[in-house]
Design a protein that fits this description.
Oligomer: single chain
GO molecular function, one term: calcium ion binding
Structural class: mainly beta
Low-confidence stretches: none
GO cellular component, one term: extracellular region
Order of helices and strands: EEEEEEEEEEEEHEEEEEEEEEEEE
CATH architecture of the largest domain: Ribbon
Subcellular location: Membrane; Secreted
Bound molecules: calcium ion
Strand content: 35-45%
Radius of gyration: 43 Å
Membrane topology: Single-pass type I membrane protein
Protein name: EGF-like domain-containing protein
Number of strands: 24
CATH class of the largest domain: Mainly Beta
Strand order of the largest sheet: 1-2
Length: about 240
């Protein structure tokens, strides 16, 4: 700190807390780094003029105390990797929480790797019944060939059979599509894959003993003339005399 000419070289007088070391021609003042690590949390550094503390990677010198090291919150100061979906600060570092369909990079643990469709294995990373895998965020969705519908309801998109109308009574699978068979009293809609009621009255598909035909969904019944009643034994589709 203060040098005096000497023979040979020079000697030093040091500030409080420092010791002169004149074992070589370059007299230096040795501070407390050699003793209690200079009070530094991490590293104590010094030269012949001064001493200072430095911190390991991921830490900064505290603004309150130059000896103290404080964790850098990489999440707060946005120095984390942009592919880190949810940044999680840790002491001296940070890691990431990844959304469904993404994995934490095993080497850095500081980004999320996704792209299930491009790099994934069919049947493993994405559903084997996914005809055309499209990377989503999160996960993926599927585009399906005609005759199939997309089921992305469970984050595990796939293409399932066909969209069966609830009014298709008995669905019969065909190559790439399906057809419907209908219960008695119904027939296939001329243009749509569903079953519709047959109007027996309009088509005169009723018994001669049915005095006034009344159409019902899935069947029909009759109004009977005076002194006649519906015949339960004929499914209420004819009138019998009392
Ligand atoms: Ca940190
Ligand atoms: Ca009917």
């Amino acid at each position: 700190h203060h040098c005096q000419n000497a023979e040979p070289g020079y000697t030093c007088e040091c500030n409080d807390g420092y010791e002169a070391e004149n074992s070589n021609l370059e007299g230096t003042c040795v501070g407390e780094c050699r003793q209690h690590n200079g009070g530094c949390d991490h590293e104590c550094e010094e030269n012949k003029y001064d001493e200072w503390c430095s911190c390991h990677e991921g830490f900064n010198i505290s603004t309150d105390d130059w000896r103290k090291c404080v964790d850098i919150d990489e999440c707060e100061d946005n120095t984390h990797h942009e592919d880190c979906q949810t940044c999680v600060n840790t002491e001296g570092s940070y890691t990431c929480r990844c959304r469904y369909g993404y994995d934490l990079d095993p080497i850095t643990e500081q980004k999320c790797n996704g792209e299930l469709c491009g790099v994934g294995k069919m049947g493993d990373d994405f559903h084997q019944d996914c005809h055309e895998c499209i990377n989503g965020n999160p996960g993926y969705t599927c585009k399906c060939r005609s005759g199939f519908r997309e089921d992305n309801s469970n984050n595990e998109g796939n293409c399932i059979g066909v969209a069966i109308d609830k009014d298709c009574h008995t669905c019969k699978n065909t190559q790439g599509s399906y057809t419907c068979e209908c219960d008695e009293g119904y027939e296939r809609h001329p243009n749509e894959k569903r079953c519709i009621d047959v109007d027996e009255c309009e088509r005169e598909l009723y018994d001669v003993g049915c005095h006034t035909c009344i159409n019902l969904i899935g069947g029909h019944t009759c109004l009977c003339n005076d002194t006649f009643i519906l015949d339960n034994n004929s499914n209420n589709e004819t009138c019998i005399g009392q």
